[in-house]
């Protein structure tokens, strides 16, 4: 399949790399220069703007950071709307349910396609894809999805796939924030790092999805997969969605505030595990 990937951040890089490996023809575009070099070496074709990137493609995937960026791409000047025609347009950025529905109305074949999993899960084919939109459009993504994953969850509407993604992200963000506070409680009572590792490292109270961040939350050191800037954005989107429907979600509000503080407090480009550095008791 001829696929255009728009946005080459951590997720876009992983996605385009996986598609190249599977033998698809991939054209790529990124707002700032230099991000496509490694992919071009592996066979991708770099385009100077989004319209050029989608020209040869049957399927277009955008993986930009947030609502504003996707909105500019989809509705802005020089953006995609007029050029897209009957191509399938899948948005894999995590954005609001509202924007996802709007895209569904504006584009002929739009699928909200948020991804559950870190960039390395995308690269290894172990991420889960949430596909929301008309069945025929999702079917047309079949050959691409077959080389990306063995798990696709389908939804009738784009906004439902967006809501599903936000619900899962809230689980992960709240458990990272809670684990950091469990460490703070233990340390407040004099437990050492080693004792905390022994107590909680294999505990069933720590969900499997948190295992790969356990050490990073405990020690404050680790790789960056998902920045606190994006984590704050996702918690806020989850909160706003619940608020708009009249649901009461005080924990989501507290989690959003925690990641807002992390972003504002110098940890914006660090992994979400960096909340483990916040609020620990003072030594001695
Ligand atoms: N990382 C994860 O674990 C993960 C997992 C699931 C879903 N996601 C979601 O996937 C999306 C991308 O995440 P990421 O980790 O790849 O983020 P990232 O590494 O921060 O990359 C962000 C990308 O968005 C582009 N961008 C930002 N604002 C833009 C604008 N106004 N116009 C055009 N391009 C713009 C950036 O371009 P420049 O290079 O020019 O800045 C870059 O390509 C986000 O919605 C995120 O929530 C991430």
Task: Please tag this protein with its features.
binds NADP nicotinamide-adenine-dinucleotide phosphate; 284 residues; globular; single chain; 50% helix; alpha/beta
Can you lay out the helices and strands and say which pair or pack?
Blueprint: E1 2-6, H1 10-21, E2 25-29, H2 37-41, E3 45-46, H3 50-54, E4 59-62, H4 67-75, H5 81-84, E5 88-91, H6 97-106, E6 110-112, E7 115-116, H7 119-123, E8 128-132, H8 135-140, H9 142-146, E9 152-155, H10 158-188, H11 193-200, H12 214-219, H13 228-244, H14 250-267
Parallel strand pairs: 1-2, 1-4, 2-3, 4-5, 5-6, 8-9
Antiparallel strand pairs: 7-8
Bound molecules: NADP nicotinamide-adenine-dinucleotide phosphate (NAP).
The site of NADP nicotinamide-adenine-dinucleotide phosphate (NAP) has 25 residues, from helix 1, helix 4 and helix 13.
């Amino acid at each position: 399949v001829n696929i255009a990937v728009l946005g080459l951040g951590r997720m876009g890089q992983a996605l385009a790399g996986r598609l190249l490996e599977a033998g698809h023809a991939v054209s790529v575009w990124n707002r700032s220069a230099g991000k496509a070099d490694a992919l071009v070496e592996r066979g991708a074709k770099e385009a100077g703007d989004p319209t050029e990137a989608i020209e040869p493609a049957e399927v277009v995937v955008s993986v930009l950071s947030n609502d504003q960026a996707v909105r500019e791409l989809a509705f802005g000047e020089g953006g995609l709307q007029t050029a897209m025609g009957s191509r399938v347009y899948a948005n894999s950025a995590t954005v609001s349910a509202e924007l996802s529905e709007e895209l569904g109305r504006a584009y002929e074949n739009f699928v909200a396609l948020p991804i559950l999993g870190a960039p390395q899960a995308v690269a290894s084919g172990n991420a889960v894809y949430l596909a929301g939109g008309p069945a025929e459009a999702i079917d047309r993504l079949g050959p691409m999805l077959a080389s990306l994953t063995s798990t696709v969850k389908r939804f009738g509407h784009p906004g439902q796939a967006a809501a599903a993604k936000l619900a899962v992200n809230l689980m992960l963000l709240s458990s990272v924030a809670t684990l950091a506070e469990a460490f703070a409680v233990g340390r407040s009572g004099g437990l050492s790092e080693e004792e905390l590792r022994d107590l909680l490292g294999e505990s069933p109270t720590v969900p499997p999805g948190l295992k790969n961040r356990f050490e990073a939350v405990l020690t404050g050191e680790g790789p960056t997969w998902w920045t606190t800037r994006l984590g704050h954005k996702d918690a806020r989107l989850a909160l706003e969605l619940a608020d708009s429907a009249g649901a009461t979600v005080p924990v989501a509000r507290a989690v959003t505030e925690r990641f807002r503080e992390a972003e504002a407090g110098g940890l914006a480009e660090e992994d979400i595990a960096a909340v483990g550095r916040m609020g620990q008791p003072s030594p001695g």
